[in-house]
Amino acid sequence: NSGVSFSFGVSIGENGSPVTKAFADQPGNNIKHLYVAAFDAAGYLLDYEEATCEDGHPDKNGTWGTNTKKYSVNLVNVPKTEPVYLHFIANGPESIEFGAQESVIVQMTTYLSPESGKLGPDAYWARVSLDKLCDSDAKDAPLTTVAQNALADVGLIRNFLEFNIKSSANGGIGKGEFVLERVVIANIPDRGYLAPYNRTTSQFMEDYYGSGMTVEALTSQNYTAAVPASATYSFSDVISASNGNAVAFMYERELDKVNPTCILVGGDYTSSTGDTTYDCWYKINLQDSKGDYFPLFRNFKYSVNIFSVETPGVTAATEASTKNIYKIFLI
Q1: Do 70 and 110 form a contact (C-beta atoms < 8 A)?
Q2: CA angle (235, 238, 241) in 5-degree steps
Q3: 37 with 50: CB under 8 angstroms?
Q4: Quick one: which H or E segment has residue 218?
Q5: pLDDT per residue as tens digits for the range 30-85
Q6: Which of 104, 116, 138, 144 has the fewest Cβ atoms within 10 angstroms?
Q7: Residue 201 and residue 234: Cα distance in Å, rounded?
């Protein structure tokens, strides 16, 4: 008998908490629909169904946080005792075309400013691979223990990353004070892929979720933060800081030395003598200690702390983006 119904849990880790206009105030509060796509052992689509939230709709149930939400789904045309790949897609399309997961899922794209019929701005994904869902083809056969454990808490991966920027530049001997008031992220892509797919090894990154995944681990696996070839790049809207802290989001992006993403920070700089205040902007290059630019990976939080500023910046964000101002120091 083909077809199986089951319950499963879904959670979102702590790597980010969207608070911009483009993204949600809380991860779960922006999940309007959750779909499950089932593919067979050869990787071809068997079924695509919307799941039902048993805990009540997330955006009517308070803050999602890191709590697991229970869902249920009824998959038809899915053999109980054969290998299956289950893709969990939050904010996905209402339907998908028949095809292989390497084409159907890999090419699925979200847009920062989605037009009618397009996905975005944020989406969440996970994949669970199982040798079988049940031990028998009986109509009411329960899930195997392995399947139950794998589906108890499916960790969804954001397809975007977070910047957390703050200033603790409170002045001192020979140093000025800088009060962070606004932030712009320069050179951000206008679209991003739904799922993390390693184009070097041709594999979905099922183990991407959780605190165990590090930038070093991704790099060692030759994972690249791929961007759709059709993407265009621009400046973000101006993001206001609150109490010297600003949060911004963007889709992941591979290393680009020619037109790299950078952070533009604006605010009031007061000279070390305290007699002059400038409303100005600075550019922060996203480079390591060796001066090398680094890729920006999805589902990570990048924290930037400005701890010392020695000279005034420039008057406009666009001007700051074209200059290297080295008298701003980070920790």
Answers
A1: no
A2: 135
A3: no
A4: helix 215-220
A5: 677 899 999 999 999 999 999 998 865 544 443 444 567 889 999 999 999 999 99
A6: 116
A7: 30
* Contact in structure between 255 and 293 (CB atoms under 8 Å): yes
CA 140, 145, 149, 151 torsion: positive or negative?
negative
> Strand runs (DSSP E) across 123-227, as ranges?
124-130, 154-158, 160-167, 170-172, 175-186, 188-189, 191-193, 197-198, 203-204
- The pLDDT tens digits for 259-293 are 889 999 999 999 888 788 999 999 998 887 777 78
162: exposed, middle or buried (Cβ count in 10 Å: 0-12, 13-18, 19+) = buried
The 8-class DSSP code of residue 240 comes to E
Going by C-alpha positions, the residue among 160, 163, 159, 157 that lies closest to residue 302 is 163
- Residue 315 CA to residue 307 CA, distance in Å, equals 21
Do the Cβ atoms of 7 and 70 come closer than 8 Å? yes
Using CA of residue 195, residue 218, residue 209, residue 166, what is the dihedral sign? negative
Q: Is the peptide bond preceding residue 295 cis, with omega within 30 degrees of 0?
A: no
DSSP, res 30 = G
CA distance 32 to 36: 14
CA distance 92 to 94: 7
